[in-house]
């Protein structure tokens, strides 16, 4: 992978957010390369969600900068929204719309023309062979398909960065693997993937990750590197060590 | 202690449970592990006497879940997957309310919930609706214990809760087990199997297997190799050139290859030798984890179609 800075997709420097006297995010810095799969982890209250909201242009930073594909989230929040896609395990597709209607709706929201939507949907359904599902209600689809379609909807307007929130928690191991296949394909094609999750197994699928606690980044690197640094056998152990709860280790 | 004999439940055309059979021994910490939609909640609601099975029988301490629901509600403590306490009542008020429903007092059973209450103590005057996910679960567990049940039925108590709270929760369950409780707990997180004495793997209403976590590993009938040293995104397409009897999938930063034949490794090595760019790939025989076992059992049940 190319390490030079021209190839950075996300660049965060001294990013800070305070709410009154409370510092939710305390001057964090990290960067993500184009096509990288990056995990942002942390327990409840660690500052993960606040960071995410700033990166999506939904919350203004108190100080510091964050660039998404060279766009400053504080200066051009509106523009940032077109640079990102978002998918969560809990909500992504409208269950009472058909597959096609979901794509048409999201394409419209992101300002794609009707012609582009139609054309892109046809290409996609042909390539991934889901043409016959197009007019089925989303709620009637098997979970494996829903999962894949939710990702494709998030990727539909070709955003350079896609955020995945607990994308595979609660799905069976085979669906989960098929889902990661799709993510890998997308990352290889140059899309940057940011995964936030509570599911520590999922963290192991990331190329690199950052673990937050009390508003700061406490661990940053490849999964293997982080395990090494904390002398831990798994991410759970790293997490407990960062939280000062080693006593809970069995 | 708990006996399920060919329990089925249908909702219209959907078969939520399909002839589920297993037993839980007295004093056991038993896990029902399966993805969303596997039927875990239906199973727990039947055991909690809140739902009638369409077919089959289930008993807890020889009491039938259909006939003897009155007795069973006194000896079971049920914690539903959805947070079901009163959000407008404080921590203390919720505990007192549940104690009164069961005609007992918090003080009489305090010894059982003391451990848990040390976590809740700082928030005793806070409304339940304003607690964090982890604290809500601990309060719900306290309320399920308030009438000193003999068996706990916990439906996905760790779902959506952060890893630190999850570890705390399992610690509490181990302590309750030491005090003699039988605990039946469900979870979609495969890595939590290690906390249980025995587990049942559930998928699409059917039991794939019942075993100890270690027994499940020993029963694994395939050879499993792990390949490291390159992004799985690059390794996967290469390894998928292997014949159909090989199953190839990512597991974290590793790619795993499973196959029935021991000499399958020769074919993997031959494939890696086709180019110098794979020279740095390390390959080793690995122990299957619960997910590997789950995938192998799915395969045996011919359930790998996702069309």
Give a quick summary of the entry.
Chain A is an alpha/beta fold and 250 residues long. In chain A, 34% of the residues lie in helices and 26% in strands.
> What is the CATH C-level name of the largest domain in chain A?
Alpha Beta
In angstroms, what separates the terminal alpha carbons of chain B? 40 Å
Which pair has the most extensive contact? A-B, 40 and 39 residues
Q: Give the number of DSSP strands of chain B.
A: 14
DSSP E strands of chain A, number: 10
List low-pLDDT spans of chain B: none
Helix/strand order of chain B, N-terminal first = EEEHEEHEHHHEHEEEHEHEEHEH
CATH superfamily of the largest domain in chain A: P-loop containing nucleotide triphosphate hydrolases
The main sheet of chain B comes to: 6 strands, mixed
By DSSP (H or I, 4+ residues per run), the number of helices of chain B equals 10
The helix/strand class of chain A is alpha/beta
Q: Which radius of gyration of chain A do the C-alpha atoms yield? A: 19 Å
Biggest sheet of chain B: strands side by side, in what order? 6-7-8-3-9-10
Helix content of chain A: 25-40%
Corresponding CATH architecture of the largest domain in chain B = 3-Layer(aba) Sandwich
What general form of chain B does the structure show? elongated
**CATH fold description of the largest domain in chain B:** Rossmann fold
């Amino acid at each position: 992978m190319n390490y030079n800075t021209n190839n950075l997709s996300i660049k965060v420097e001294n990013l800070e957010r305070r709410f009154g006297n409370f510092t939710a995010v305390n001057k964090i810095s990290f960067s993500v390369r184009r096509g990288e799969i990056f995990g942002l982890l942390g327990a409840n209250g660690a500052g993960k969600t606040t960071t995410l909201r700033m990166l999506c242009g939904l919350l203004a930073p108190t100080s510091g900068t964050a660039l998404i594909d060279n766009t400053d989230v504080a200066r051009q929040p509106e523009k940032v929204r077109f640079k990102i896609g978002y998918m969560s395990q809990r909500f992504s597709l409208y269950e009472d719309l058909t597959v096609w209607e979901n794509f048409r709706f999201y394409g419209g929201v992101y300002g794609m023309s009707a012609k582009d939507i139609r054309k892109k949907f046809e290409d996609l359904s042909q390539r991934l062979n889901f043409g016959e599902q197009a007019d089925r209600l989303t709620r009637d689809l098997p979970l494996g398909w829903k999962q894949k379609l939710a990702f494709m909807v998030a990727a539909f307007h070709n955003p350079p960065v896609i955020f995945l929130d607990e994308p595979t928690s609660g799905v069976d191991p085979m669906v989960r693997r098929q889902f990661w296949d799709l993510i890998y394909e997308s990352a290889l094609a140059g899309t940057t993937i940011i995964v936030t999750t509570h599911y520590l197994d999922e963290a192991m699928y990331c190329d690199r990750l950052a673990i937050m606690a009390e508003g700061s980044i406490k661990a940053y690197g490849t999964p293997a590197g982080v395990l090494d640094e904390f002398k831990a056998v798994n991410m759970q152990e790293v997490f407990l060590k960062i939280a000062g709860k080693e006593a809970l280790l069995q | 202690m708990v006996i399920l004999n060919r329990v089925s439940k249908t909702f219209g055309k959907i078969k939520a449970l399909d002839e589920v059979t297993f037993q839980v021994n007295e004093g056991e910490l038993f896990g029902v592990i399966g993805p969303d939609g596997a039927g875990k909640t239906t199973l727990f609601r039947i055991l909690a006497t809140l739902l009638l099975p369409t077919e089959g029988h289930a008993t807890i301490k020889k009491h039938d879940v259909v006939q003897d629901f009155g007795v069973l509600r006194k000896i079971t403590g049920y914690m539903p997957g959805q947070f079901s306490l009163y959000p407008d009542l404080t921590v203390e008020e919720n505990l007192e309310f549940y104690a009164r429903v069961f005609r007992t007092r918090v003080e009489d059973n305090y010894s059982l919930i003391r451990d848990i209450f040390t976590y809740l103590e700082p928030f005793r005057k806070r409304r339940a609706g304003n607690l964090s996910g982890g604290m809500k679960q601990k309060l719900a567990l306290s309320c399920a214990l308030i009438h000193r049940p003999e068996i706990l039925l916990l439906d996905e108590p760790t779902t959506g809760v952060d890893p630190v709270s999850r570890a705390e929760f399992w610690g509490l369950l181990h302590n309750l087990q030491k005090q003699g409780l039988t605990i039946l707990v469900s979870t979609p997180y495969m890595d939590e199997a290690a906390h249980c004495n025995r587990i049942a793997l559930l998928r699409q209403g059917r039991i794939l297997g019942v075993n100890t976590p270690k027994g499940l590993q020993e029963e694994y009938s395939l050879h499993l190799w792990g390949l490291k040293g390159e992004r799985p995104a690059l390794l996967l397409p290469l390894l998928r050139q292997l014949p159909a009897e090989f199953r190839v999938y990512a597991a974290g930063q590793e790619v795993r290859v499973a196959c029935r034949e021991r000499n399958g490794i020769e074919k993997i090595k031959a494939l890696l030798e086709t180019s110098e760019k794979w020279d740095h790939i390390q390959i080793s025989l690995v122990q299957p984890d619960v997910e590997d076992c789950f995938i192998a059992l799915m395969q045996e049940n011919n359930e790998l179609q996702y069309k």
